[in-house]
TrEMBL record, chain A:
Residues 1-233 form the FAD-binding PCMH-type domain. PANTHER family: OXIDOREDUCTASE, XANTHINE DEHYDROGENASE SUBUNIT C-RELATED. InterPro entries: CO_DH_flav_C, CO_DH_flav_C_dom_sf, Diverse_Substr_Oxidored, FAD-bd_PCMH, FAD-bd_PCMH-like_sf, FAD-bd_PCMH_sub1, FAD-bd_PCMH_sub2, Mopterin_DH_FAD-bd. It comes from the Bacteria. One of its GO terms (molecular function) is oxidoreductase activity. This is FAD-binding molybdopterin dehydrogenase. Coiled coil: none annotated.
Automatic annotation (TrEMBL), chain B:
This is Oxidoreductase. It comes from the Bacteria. Residues 50-126 form the 2Fe-2S ferredoxin-type domain. The lineage of its organism: Bacteria, Pseudomonadati, Pseudomonadota, Alphaproteobacteria, Hyphomicrobiales. InterPro entries: 2Fe-2S-bd, 2Fe-2S-bd_dom_sf, 2Fe-2S_ferredoxin-like_sf, 2Fe-2S_ferredoxin-type, 2Fe2S_fd_BS, Aldehyde_Oxdr_Iron-Sulfur, Beta-grasp_dom_sf, TAT_signal.
Length: 338, 204
């Protein structure tokens, strides 16, 4: 690990100032000289691998005093960005009214990592692409812009089939983000020019020609909270993976339904493990609205969700697997008792 | 499993011999004021070591270390508490699991600087006098290890697993202990050990 300076920020202004001061103009956030340290489960790991090389760490954990509450907001809920994954997963209200959130968190990582990792850090976690994580490979457009992509024709079984470009096929690895994008969450952000908020769907950017730019956050900006309106007791997070526990998704689905008298009034479908960013399957959702559920409909929805999927040599199986995950998640959501 | 780490080290100690002249200034202190003084450092020169006070197994330990030092390296290399093991050093294997403020975490991804002011409990802090912690005893009773390298992490994780209320069924134990990898695959016996110790730990 390269040397860095360490500073503990006890209030948001100090944190924003310290992060902004060290941020060079036009730097992508991921390569900014100063990085915020929350749970550290991504950052310290990638610093040990020499993938991330910040010259300064700003420890924002003291901000948890104000930024970790799980509280009602309007008819919905607000989750502080420094709340720990384990605390949110175990929260009664979240388990009851947002099972898709509770399960996306519970099925991620290990108990130890969930105790450390925060919600804000979780959505900002970097890809698990082996070529990105191994600096002995020069060709990684995300880590080393313009250098090419070793995964395109390399070992790409874990890689994305949706939202890909000819520059990058690295999978967005998280689970919780799929729940947030499905439920139309709003991200609250604190920065130099005060607070702003944006739909969660606008936080991440597909790789396109600039895979090194992963989000619309600017250096010096911090996520302070996520808020969700309404309640979604009929929601599930289904995760298919190589091991039953402590593994990233090969394919996952976050599904939330509003069903009245057998009629689907509102439907949300988001996909994980198969896309370069948290992925909302809006065309697929549209097929569900106003319909009665049956297996044929589930199949059509699943097909629509993967209509634009592009498989490569080793990851094409994710298209067939992903469709089954969507169909099964829908079935579970329809039949669950609430 | 030793009941005490530092006080009963034998005169001929393999680790002490191998450690040679390496090491850092290590001054255990008890004064609260000194601990407070070491808190909340401003941005420091990355080239210079920093003062850190870690509270480990109920005692304040003052260290003068590189800012990059993790809790795991602080424990093993600077405090000679080698019970916590370094397996992957990337948060994947769980061998380095310790409790920080009673929550299980991987110490290899926790910076010592970020752990200041928190209560760190390691495998060396479990036994009282000559009595093993119920989870330590359960691991022995159930033969819950072969090589033993993952065992300190397994035991720390298992204690937290029980206290979190995640040891009520074998399926739960398997799910919530998945962050601790055992290369010898002693899993069935580990599950049995956690089941045995759970009621005693919950009783307090």
């Amino acid at each position: 690990m390269r040397p860095f300076s360490y500073q503990r920020a006890t209030d948001p202004d100090t944190a924003v100032q310290a992060l902004s001061a060290a941020a060079a103009a036009n730097n992508p956030l991921t390569q900014a000289r100063a990085q915020p340290l929350a749970g550290g489960t991504t950052l310290i790991d990638l610093m040990k691998l020499d993938v991330m090389r910040p010259a300064a760490l700003v420890d924002i954990n003291p901000l948890a005093r104000d930024w970790s509450a799980i509280e009602p907001k309007g008819d919905g809920v607000r989750l502080g960005a420094l709340a720990k994954m384990s605390d949110v997963a175990a929260h009664d209200e979240i388990q009851r009214n947002y099972p898709v959130i509770a399960n996306s968190l519970k099925l991620a990582a290990s108990a130890q990592l969930r105790n450390m990792a925060t919600l804000g850090g979780n959505v900002m976690q970097r890809t698990r692409c082996s070529y990105f994580r191994d600096v002995s490979y020069e060709n990684c457009n995300k880590r080393n812009p313009g250098s090419g992509c070793a995964a395109m024709d390399g070992v790409n079984r874990m890689h994305a089939v949706l939202g890909v470009s000819d520059q990058c096929i690295a999978t967005y690895p998280g689970d919780f983000a799929q729940a947030l994008i499905a439920l139309d969450a709003i991200v609250e952000i604190t920065g130099k020019s005060g607070a702003r908020s944006l739909p969660f769907a606008q936080l991440h950017k597909t790789p396109g020609n600039t895979p090194e730019i992963e989000t619309t956050l600017q250096p010096g900006e911090l996520i302070s909270a996520f808020s969700i309106s309404g309640r979604w007791p009929r929601s599930v997070y289904l995760k298919a993976r190589d091991r039953q526990s402590y593994e990233f998704a090969l394919s996952s689905a976050a599904v939330a339904l509003d069903v009245q008298d057998g009629m689907i009034r509102d439907a949300r479908v988001a996909l994980g493990g198969v896309a370069t960013v948290p992925w909302r399957a809006r065309e697929a959702e549209a097929l569900l609205k106003g319909q009665k559920f049956d297996d044929g409909l589930a199949q059509r929805v699943a097909d629509a969700a993967f209509a634009d999927a592009k498989g490569r040599r080793q990851n094409s199986f994710k298209i067939a697997l992903g469709k089954r995950v969507v169909a099964r998640a829908l079935q579970q959501a329809v039949t669950m008792e609430i | 499993m030793s009941d005490s780490s530092s006080s009963k080290q034998s005169a001929f100690d393999r680790r002490a011999f191998m450690a040679g002249a390496a090491g850092s200034v290590l001054v255990p202190i008890t004064a609260r004021a000194a601990a407070e003084e070491a808190r909340a450092p401003a941005a420091q020169d990355p080239a210079l070591p920093v003062d850190v006070t870690l509270r480990v197994n109920g005692k304040d330990k003052r260290l003068h270390v590189d800012a990059r030092t993790t809790v795991l390296d602080a424990l093993r290399d600077h405090l000679k508490l080698t019970g916590s093991k370094k397996g992957c050093d990337h948060g994947q294997c769980g061998a380095c699991t310790v409790l920080i403020d009673d929550r299980r975490v991987v110490s290899c991804l926790t910076l010592a600087l970020a752990a200041e002011g928190q209560e760190i409990t390691t495998i060396e802090g479990l036994a009282t006098d000559d009595r093993l912690h119920p989870m330590q005893q359960a691991f022995i009773d159930n033969d819950a290890f072969q090589c033993g390298y993952c065992t300190p992490g397994q035991i720390m994780s298992a204690i937290a697993c029980v206290k979190e209320g995640h040891a009520k069924s074998e399926a739960d134990i398997r799910e919530y202990m998945s962050g601790n990898i055992c290369r010898c695959a002693a899993y069935p016996n580990i599950v049995a050990a956690v089941k045995q110790a759970a009621p005693e730990i919950m009783k307090g």
